[in-house]
UniProtKB/TrEMBL annotation:
It holds the Pfam family Usp. InterPro entries: Rossmann-like_a/b/a_fold, Universal_stress_UspA, UspA. PANTHER family: STRESS RESPONSE PROTEIN NHAX (PTHR46268), USPA DOMAIN PROTEIN (PTHR46268:SF25). The lineage of its organism: Archaea, Nitrososphaerota, Nitrososphaeria, Nitrosopumilales, Nitrosopumilaceae. It comes from Nitrosopumilus ureiphilus. Residues 12-151 form the UspA domain. Belongs to the universal stress protein A family. This is Universal stress protein. It comes from the Archaea.
Length: 151
């Protein structure tokens, strides 16, 4: 793991965006470090874009019985990793149209009380998002909470 050097403000709830990529799991590692510093809980959020019939503005929380086996395993792995570090974890899957809009809408909802967002960047977008990736770039610019991008 690369060393993470940053100033981190106190947080109670850290949202980490999970898509199963190596960089999202690196983001989870960073969120664990931040949570240890501030005694925060981690909210692992996965955006399932296969439910395009739902409005991305609503970003409904999908019940566990609607999760795919792959998503269920992703949340399980994240939960084990976080709880191994004695940090409270909650896994959530939201449905919508695009991950960036879904994650930002969820994070910006005052009812969810997100203090910090951590997202891994795969850098796959082109050309504007060449450095940060389209989803992480969107979240960085549209989220109200501070965002940490992990590469």
């Amino acid at each position: 793991m690369k060393h993470i050097f940053c100033f981190f403000m106190s947080a109670e709830k850290i949202m980490v965006c999970l898509d199963g990529s190596k960089n999202s799991l690196r983001g989870l590692d960073a969120a664990i470090l931040f949570a240890k510093q501030s005694d925060a809980m981690i909210l692992g959020v996965h955006s399932d874009t296969s439910f395009s019939a739902f409005s991305a503005v609503r970003t409904p929380i999908l019940p566990e019985e609607k999760w795919t086996n792959e998503v269920r395993e992703l949340i399980h792995v994240a939960k084990k990793k976080v709880e191994k570090n004695k940090i409270k974890f909650e896994g959530i899957v939201i449905g919508g149209h695009t991950s960036g809009i879904d994650l930002t809408t969820f994070a910006n909802n005052p009812a969810n009380k997100i203090d910090q967002i951590v997202i891994g960047s795969r850098g796959m977008g082109f050309p504007k998002e060449l450095f940060f990736g389209s989803t992480s770039n969107f979240v960085l610019h549209k989220a109200k909470a501070p965002v940490t991008i992990v590469k």
